[in-house]
Amino acid sequence: MITSLSIKNYALIEKLSIDFSKGFSIITGETGAGKSIILGALGLVLGKRSDLTSLKNKEEKCVIEAHFEISKYNLLPFFEANDLDYEEDTIIRREILPSGKSRAFINDSPVNLQELQELSLYLIDIHSQQQTQELSDENVQFKIIDAIANNQHDILQYQTLLKSYKTDKSHLNTLLKRQGDSIKEQEYNTFLLDELASAKLKSGEQEVLEADFEKLNNVEIIKESIDKSLAIANEEQIGVLDHLKEIKVSLQKIASFSPDYHSLLERITSITIEFDDISDELNRCSEKLINDPEQLELISQKLQLIFNLQKKHQVTTVDELLEIQTKLENSILEIGNLEEEISELTHIIQEKTIALDALSAVIHENRVGSIPVLSQKLIAILETLGMPNVRFNIDINATLNYYANGKDEIQFLFSANKGTDFGLLKKVASGGEMSRIMLAVKAILAQYSKLPTLIFDEIDTGVSGEIAIRMGEIMKEMSTSMQIFAITHLPQIAAKGTAHFKVFKSTVGDDTQSELKLLNTEERVVEIAQMLSGTVVSDSALNHAKALLN
Q1: Which end of the chain has fewer CB atoms at under 10 Å, N or C?
Q2: CA separation for the pair 61, 50 (Å, rounded)
């Protein structure tokens, strides 16, 4: 439950600090006095977004701080999961800076708005007039049914499984699209692969082929040059090799006379050996050199094939062609792997479908079983609220579709009077009837909810007199198990509260401020009397107020 609220520099509030008690608290005040401001401040504490218009003084920061007593609400797991300090007296603080930036703290630990919003779900439910209209929304109707049916755990399991199911379905659709695209490309890719494979390409062979091509294409020129070289080297008397041998013999005669001469002998000996080896190599090259037009043609064809493939695939080397060949092989292989992956994923989806169907069947049965309970409770409460002939027709039909909370569709029909047909709530229920129905719903849910605090913002719209008294009594009954706040303009409801706060405006100099005050007994009598008769309080209004309070 909320135990205190302090507000600084927010809207029309310069500074406000107020303590709250458990039970049934009333908040009253003239229209425009600032009741919505109090709710707005609470909304910021609970994680709503802010803007600079929230600041009263644009030069100073706005600070809103709320204390909550949470010892009875088993919130330790939430604090541990979010790495927050757990305190039985938990403090939530929201700051809005003049720059427009907003900060939030739980027990002085910085948190983001999402964490704040998640915690608020366990702390306060603010029921606005807008929510009354939302009663006709299917999602809201399901929440009511599921609370009574105790479906929360099963729905959580269902939603977790549904999320996984949808992820798998999306992945399967992606794979099927890839498969479709691959099948279209497979024939062309297979053709390209066969073309490359038939070429029997090898890394580095292009260079070898080009060298062989040059050799065979110029065989006559090469042979002529080699033969001429051999003649110069080996011709008798004037050949280079004979002259080198003669120089060697001459140097051998003087080598012993000087180290320099011996060095020259070694050098000429080395040259002679090297030149002799060159001559032998030239002989071997000459012997191997054959004019082979057929081989030349084969090499030419292979090179032309390589050039054509390089041009086709827009590359310049055989290694790049081999890379393309590998990619094509992998691509074609991937189609087979894709089929296997699709088969496995399809099986997983089928299993999840079975599990989803089983969970949704349990949820459906629980909902169907809760309908009589909900109808009886609603009728019992509404009879006391001046609707003795009210009837409900709640149909829950299982479908083939997977919705966020199961596979059901709901039809929530209502009849307020005898002899009238059932109709949809939003079409046949008046504003006053909707207010009473919503109060009845909240009263029922309070029996199943562990929520510590509930705030009613003018739920009494469209009712008065004896009905208002009974609405006040119902809220007071609810306050025995939870903290209840009611913002109201009806004295009949205001009189049922255990604590009464008044929101009012005051003028300080040129400044207008909203204030919130806890009324004592005498002040409360006067406030209720004013709600009965207006600004001028008569003796009869005072007596009537005292009677309502007793």
Answers
A1: C
A2: 12
